[in-house]
Specification:
Elements lengths: L1 H6 L5 E2 L6 H11 L11 E6 L1 H16 L8 H16 L2 E8 L4 H25 L2 E5 L7 H7 L5 E10 L1 E3 L16
Helix pairs in contact: 2-5, 3-4, 3-6
The protein binds flavin mononucleotide (FMN).
Flavin mononucleotide binds next to strand 4.
Length: 184
């Protein structure tokens, strides 16, 4: 486990080979063992594959198009084609959502627990040889994405996790914990 925690990387480039449903289910089964105050089980996961993924790719392309002054320009078209293709070439995309309670404390704790579940999911992926990449950004609050998933009004999408077998695994660095730690 100690090695997997250190070896897990956000994997931006994945192969197109499908990730079997059982493998994704295994990752989700581990995710829900996150610590969870009052066992509220605030998480819900939405797995986009096939047609769901295609519709998400279209929304992603449309959203990106809205950020270009002239989406018809050749360079914009190229970028939009790439974003659509990259999304389609990702075997699965998992939206991770958390229940948003009315009271601040529960909402904060449920959000934290769901992020822990997300980390479990990514670590399980690393153990199973599956790459993951969590992305936030404006798309997670996009109404079209919410409608596509059928997310209830009292839930927030915390991240979209892109899932696939790594084509390459980047190197990352961390400051040693000793430099971030005070012992008293
Ligand atoms: C809350 C959170 C949000 C993130 N959102 C994005 C994102 O929107 N786009 C992105 O490229 N990476 C995102 N990441 C991934 C980080 O870029 C990545 O974890 C960081 O580069 C460290 O790399 P590593 O995960 O390989 O250690 C996010 C990570 C966290 C924890």
């Amino acid at each position: 486990m100690l090695d997997v925690i250190k070896a897990r990387r956000s994997v931006p480039k994945v192969r197109a080979d499908p990730v079997p449903r059982e493998v994704i289910e295994q990752m989700l089964d581990v995710a829900v063992w996150a610590p969870n105050h009052r066992l509220t089980e605030p998480w819900r996961f939405y797995v986009l594959i096939g047609d769901g993924k295609r519709r998400f790719a279209e929304i992603r392309r449309r959203f990106r198009a809205s950020t270009f002054p002239n989406p018809e320009a050749p360079e914009a078209q190229k970028a939009l084609g790439r974003i659509y293709q990259d999304t389609m070439a990702t075997p699965a995309i998992i939206a991770v959502t958390a229940h948003q309670a009315q009271d601040d404390e529960t909402r904060h704790e449920d959000t934290a627990a769901t992020f822990m579940a997300l980390q479990n999911l990514m670590l399980a992926g690393a153990e199973l040889g599956v790459g993951t990449y969590m992305r936030t950004g404006p798309l997670i609050d996009n109404p079209e994405v919410r409608t596509l998933l059928g997310v209830e009004d009292d839930r927030r999408i915390l991240a979209m996790v892109y899932v696939g077998y790594p084509a390459e695994t980047p190197q990352k660095r961390r400051t040693p914990a000793a430099e971030k730690t005070v012992w008293l």
